[in-house]
Structure formats: structure tokens, C-alpha cells
From TrEMBL:
<dbReference type="InterPro" id="IPR036179">
    <property type="entry name" value="Ig-like_dom_sf"/>
</dbReference>
<feature type="signal peptide">
    <location>
        <begin position="1"/>
        <end position="17"/>
    </location>
</feature>
<keyword id="KW-1133">Transmembrane helix</keyword>
<keyword id="KW-0325">Glycoprotein</keyword>
<dbReference type="InterPro" id="IPR039311">
    <property type="entry name" value="FAM187A/B"/>
</dbReference>
<keyword id="KW-0812">Transmembrane</keyword>
<dbReference type="GO" id="GO:0016020">
    <property type="term" value="C:membrane"/>
</dbReference>
<protein>
    <submittedName>
        <fullName>Protein FAM187B</fullName>
    </submittedName>
</protein>
<comment type="similarity">
    <text>Belongs to the FAM187 family.</text>
</comment>
<keyword id="KW-0472">Membrane</keyword>
<keyword id="KW-0732">Signal</keyword>
Length: 206
């Protein structure tokens, strides 16, 4: 029980610094992120105009009236404490209404984070096939391991993983972007965090 409480403390939104997401000029990039963690979507255009369309099929709206979203002076968009409901398409255009960059962001719910510790023999979520009749695979797409939290003595490091769905021969997609407005919920649709012991010598740091 103690171990569980301690692990949960790792999942506080403050554990991660603000994340910068960028994408090539005139391109569309897809990304899964954790809700509750501040993010900046890059758009280098001084007169950038941003539009958002939700995966729930709501109307496109000009992003000036949303309280937790701010346009930075250089044109990029800052989202403070983004919510799963803000999953969708972020479109940045220039003053001539030409596309600069687009992001499809899946804010996966940090409150459902599935945390496992390797040293305690806990296993991450298993791959599963969807019951939609197709051959879609639902799995966790892992980020690289983060740095060990100390050196010269046993420490721990962690990695984050996001729910993805893959069809044979297709590029995997973040779960909520894949399912869009389909109201289905799968038990397996959680982001994950895995914790593991690590031991690194101090002279390897810096
Ligand atoms: C957009 O900005 C560019 C450069 O600042 C300018 O040359 C162009 O006339 C502007 N277009 C409109 C429609 O305002
Ligand atoms: C789960 O599926 C992913 C994506 O196809 C694959 O990379 C991974 O190796 C699979 N994991 C297991 C345990 O089969």
C-alpha cells in the first residue's frame, strides 16, 4: 500500500516540464500527450491564427476565448493544464489564410494513468485486439526511459506510454484520434507509466 501511494505521487502533473511540440512547415503531425501537463504547439508566424476542431465533431472555433489556451507573441499556442476534451485538430494559418502547420493531439487522461513497477513484478498492459470485428491491435507506444533520478546509489527511472491503435499495414494512431466520435470505450484505453530501478555512476552525468 505504501509503495502504491508513493508511486502515485510520481504521477502529479508537476513531474514534467512544459513540452514543446513542433512539426514541419505545412505538415500535419499527430501526437499523444498526457492531460494536465502544459504544452506549447509551435507555429512560427507572427500573425498566426489558430483554429480548433474537437474529435467530438464540434464546430471549428477560433481559439481566443478558451481560458486555458494562450497565443504566445511568436505565434505558438500554449495550453495550460489541457484536458482530454481538448483532444482534436489544432490548425495554424497565416494572415492570408494559408496553412502554416497542423497538429492532431490526443490528450490522454492522466487520472487513468496505469502505473507499474518492474521491480515489484508488476506487468504493463497487454496488447489486445479490438472487438470491432476488424484486426485492429490496441497497444502501448512507449517513450524512451527518462534519466535515472540519482547517481552513485540505486535510483529509479520511468517512462511514459500512450494508448495506440494499429491496423495491419497502417501507421499506428493514438487511440482517441483513431476512434474519433465512436462512443466505444475499451477497458484497455489508458496511458501508462513504468518504473524501473537503475544504478548509474556519477561521472556519466553532465
Ligand atoms: C500578410 O502579411 C504579409 C507580410 O507581413 C503581407 O505582405 C501581406 O500583405 C499580408 N496579407 C494580408 C491579407 O493582410
Ligand atoms: C504489441 O504491439 C506492438 C505494436 O505492434 C509491438 O511493437 C509490440 O512488440 C507488441 N508487444 C507484445 C508484448 O507483443
Amino acid at each position: 500500500m505504501l509503495a502504491t501511494l508513493w508511486l502515485l505521487s510520481l504521477s502529479l502533473p508537476t513531474s514534467w516540464a512544459q513540452i514543446l511540440v513542433s512539426c514541419a512547415y505545412k505538415s500535419l503531425c499527430q501526437q499523444a500527450l498526457l492531460s494536465g501537463n502544459d504544452v506549447v504547439l509551435q507555429c512560427d508566424h507572427l500573425k498566426a491564427r489558430w483554429y480548433f476542431s474537437s474529435i467530438l465533431g464540434e464546430d471549428v472555433l477560433l481559439l481566443s476565448s478558451v481560458p486555458n489556451i494562450k497565443k504566445l507573441p511568436g505565434g505558438s499556442l500554449q495550453l495550460t493544464n489541457p484536458q482530454p476534451s481538448q483532444t482534436g485538430l489544432y490548425h495554424c494559418e497565416d494572415n492570408d489564410s494559408a496553412l502554416v502547420v497542423e497538429y492532431e493531439i490526443d490528450f490522454q487522461d492522466v487520472t487513468t494513468l496505469h502505473i507499474t513497477h518492474k521491480g515489484l513484478g508488476q506487468k504493463p498492459l497487454q496488447n489486445e485486439t479490438l472487438s470491432l470485428g476488424g484486426k485492429e491491435l490496441i497497444f502501448t507506444h512507449w517513450d524512451p526511459w527518462q534519466d535515472c533520478n540519482c547517481c552513485g546509489e540505486p535510483g529509479e527511472h520511468k517512462r511514459l506510454g500512450y494508448c495506440y491503435i494499429e491496423e495491419p499495414l497502417e501507421k499506428p494512431m493514438p487511440c482517441w484520434l483513431y476512434l474519433q466520435e465512436e462512443k466505444v470505450q475499451y477497458r484497455r484505453m489508458w496511458p501508462e507509466m513504468q518504473v524501473e530501478a537503475c544504478l548509474i555512476p556519477c561521472d556519466h552525468i553532465k
